[in-house]
Structure formats: C-alpha cells, structure tokens
User: What shape does this take?
Amino acid sequence: MTEQPRHVQVAVIGAGLAGLGAAVQLKRRGLHSFTVFEKAGDLGGTWRDNTYPGAGCDIPSHLYSYSFAPYRDSAVRYPRQPEVLAYLRRCADDHGLVPHLRYGTEITALRYDDAAGHWILGTADGTEHTADAVVTAVGQLSLPRYPDLPGLDEFAGTAFHTARWDHDHDLDGRDVAVIGTGSSAAQVVPEIAGRVRRLYVHQRSPNWVLPKPGERFHPLLSALLRTVPGAHGAYRGLLFRRSEAVLLPALRRGRAAALLAFMARRHLAGQVPDPELRARLTPPFAIGCKRIVLSSEYFPALARDNVELVTDPIARVTEKGIETRDGTLREVDTIIHATGFRTTEFLAPMEVSGSGGQRLDEVWRHGARAHLGIHVPGFPNLFLMYGPNTNLGHNSVTLTIEAQSDYVAQCVQLLSGHAERGERVVLDAREEALTAWQRRIDEGAARTVWTDDCTNWFKNADGTLTNNWPYKTALYRRLTARPDPAALRLLPAGRLPAR
Ligand code: NAP
Assistant: This one.
C-alpha cells in the first residue's frame, strides 16, 4: 500500500542509535515537527540487525550510552545485544519519540528541489515526501558485505551473514565454516563451537586480540557502584579519560602501543600453547591497524578438537563446501559470512542529489568527505549523523554521535528561527571549510596506524581514511559545540549561487 505524501520540517532517516539521538536533541530544543523514517519494522539499527549468538558490545555500557540517558547497571559491565536494544527502546519511550517513528518506510532517494528550496524523499513504494531539512542516520555498519568468492551461488547448504542470522537454522551437530575473523566472528565462534560437529574458521589475516574483562562487575566493584554516590559518573569519566590518554596515543604510534602489543602477545601466548597455531594467529602489522578484538574466549575456542583454523586462502566455494588453494575441500552444510560491512559507502544505497542536481556519489568518487562529518557543500540543509571520519577507534562512538545530534539540532533551530520570521533560508557549508577540515583529517590520519599496510574497514580502496576520527574525542566535541558562521553560509532557499 502506498503512503500519503507529507511535508515535514525535519526528516530523520534511520531509527538506530544516531537517529534516536538526533530526535531526542531536536525535542530538547523545542523542535517537534519531525518524523523518523525507518525502513524496518522496529528501531535499533545495528543492534536490531545483529542477533548472532554472542552478539554484544565490547565497550562498557557506562560509556556506550548517552549522557542524557545514562545506562548504569551495577551488575553488568558489557551489555549483550538484547540489553543494548532494550536501552534504545527505553530512550525512545522516555523521550516521547514513539509518535515520531514511521516504520516500514525505506527512503531510497533524496533530491534537493532548487525551485522549492526543500528536499524530496523518494520511498521504496514510490511515495514522495518533502522536508525542509534532512538528517541522515543510516549507520556505518548497516550494509552487510558478502565475500566475492567464485562458486558461492553453487553452495547447496545454508549460508547467511552474521548480521542476518538465520535463527530457524539449527546448528547443532552440523559442519560449519565461518569466513572472517573480526569482532563478529570472535563473538560467534566461542558460542557455536561447542554445538557444531566440525567448525572451520577461515582466516584471511589475523587480528590482535586483547583479553576481555568479565561481562559482570566484580561483586566489590558492583557494591561500590550501587552504594557510593557519584560512582557511576566517576566510572564513566575514568573510562573516557583512559581511552583518550592511553588508547588514542597507542593508535597514533605512541609509546602506549608497545604496552598494548605486549598485553596482546602475552594473551596469545597464555591461551595458545601450540607454537604453529600461535604463529598463524600473530598479525604482521602494528596493533590497532585493524580494530582490536576483545575476547578471552576466542583463542580457547580455536584450540578445541572439533575446530580448525584455516589460513590457506579460499579458492572457491563448491556445492559441498569450501576449497582452499592447496586443493583441500572441507565439506560443510553451513557457511557463516562474518565478513563485515560495506562501511565506506555511507549513504548508499540511497541516491542523493543536491543543488543543481549534482550527485553525491559523483562528489564522493574519491572517497566520502563532509565538513565535521556532517555537511557536504552543495547539499543544503542536509545533515549527516555518524558521517565520514566520525567513527572512533579508541572511544565510544556514542560520544561523537551525541555531539553531532546537539550540533544538528542547533542548526535546525537556527533555520526554524528564520522560518518563524517568514524567511526561508538554507544552511550550506563553505567549500573552504571542507578543504581545511579534510587537510586536518589527512594530517591526523597519516599519524595513525590505521593507514599502515593492513586491511581495515576505516579506509577506502585508495587507502584514504574515510571512517575514523584521528584525534581526541574532546576535540571533536569542541569543534561541534556550535555552528560556526565562518564555515557555513545562510542563503535564501532555492538554487544555490555558484561557489
Ligand atoms: P570486520 O571487522 O570487517 O571483519 C571482517 C572479516 O571478514 C575480516 O577478518 C576479513 O578479513 C574477513 N573477510 C572479508 N571478506 C573476506 C573474503 N572475501 N574472504 C575471506 N575473508 C574475508 O567485520 P566484523 O567482524 O563484522 O566487525 C565490524 C565492526 O563491527 C567491528 O570492527 C566493530 O567496530 C563492530 N563490532 C563491534 C562489536 C562490539 O563488541 N562492540 C562486535 C561486533 C562488531 P581481512 O581482515 O583479511 O580483511
């Protein structure tokens, strides 16, 4: 059934962590005319989609939560997927977002209408809505990446991606292959290793792994958090400062890197006594180049008798299983793709065109860039949440997303103030601001280990860092504290003047 077209002041696209955060801040600034369009039938984004066994957050919930909606459990340190999803539902309920959520509406196209000075949102069912401003919050980890392997279609068994887990497919007693060894695989493998008959873990390149503290707090710490006033806030502050002061310098090739590498090596040596297996699990690149895996269960699972770490490259998939380049065919009835996400495509598969009809995929042909990760010049009143270079490799992404949501709400408030005075204006970033921003990103990127010779999901095929923020979180917060008139242009709604 097609929907009725409607005009909204602000269209938020996506009801995950970022979309909900933006919606909360809009309301806090007295802006109530907005709709959150969500393609699925539920909120939660990546925390709705990733339901694989063992799915959870390896950032403590005290930090993986908004400051305006503290998630402070005195018992649980690391929340599992159902707990994070429940937290997001609570945020939506507590902040009165539910009436704003419009489920089952996939926005497939965004087109700035120069004549009308507003955005046209095309939906999957063909209906077109319009909006004065658009906030995209579609995530960086939302499009599953499937491996491009010959013969994949010929496989006669069951295959699925970790982010699209097939809960109707019982794994008990089966022969299973997992492709990929990132954070998702490291959580899945220990959960299923004891249930399946054989498990082959196909590793293309190893990851550095650090031990993960217990999911639950030690009873003493738990009692402290429960009873000492201010303890929860102090704990959050401690986690934040440790990430800024130790982890970021390590990722920027500082001396702390040696400490982390030492811890990772000791963890590996302690859990994997077999020197041959240990050698295959030792990465040849600096710690942090790929996202560090946090797990105390992954290595012991690999050492089980029914589990084999396969490091010979995959040659092809056949009807019966996976054949490696040495000619070995390992027959399986299930293939699990733990192969990550199409992270550098950002707003895809939405087709986005700005003033003068310029296409975003054309503007971004050498890599996604946006001033503050939020504004793309020539795309007025379009605000990106969790856009290019705003992912954190050392701290909780809720921090940059919260900073953005308040910043975007301020921009909308500014526009709204003009509209109330009968002035229809749009906000566009200056090209010079983006150039200066990109220079800052590139300089920072060159100092990090992310641009070293390893594959990771933070850079595009050219090796340009497109996803991560290479500086302190505190700096990002400062830069997004309020809209900077020197970086932005306020123009009459309509076709933008030449830049
Ligand atoms: P990922 O880190 O991108 O890992 C994908 C894995 O698949 C890599 O080992 C990669 O090998 C392998 N791979 C990809 N294509 C392949 C192919 N054609 N043949 C063989 N192997 C292939 O993806 P992820 O594990 O889903 O994690 C993504 C991100 O999600 C994480 O980095 C993290 O930020 C987030 N996450 C977080 C948590 C948490 O606890 N907070 C949990 C899960 C995920 P190469 O390394 O050789 O490319």
User: Anything to note?
Assistant: The mean pLDDT is 96. The pocket of NAP is lined by residues 56-59, 141, 147-149, 162, 179-185, 187, 202, 204-205, 291, 314, 338-340, 455, 457 (CB under 6 Å). The first strand starts at residue 7 and ends at 13. The two ends are 42 Å apart (CA to CA).
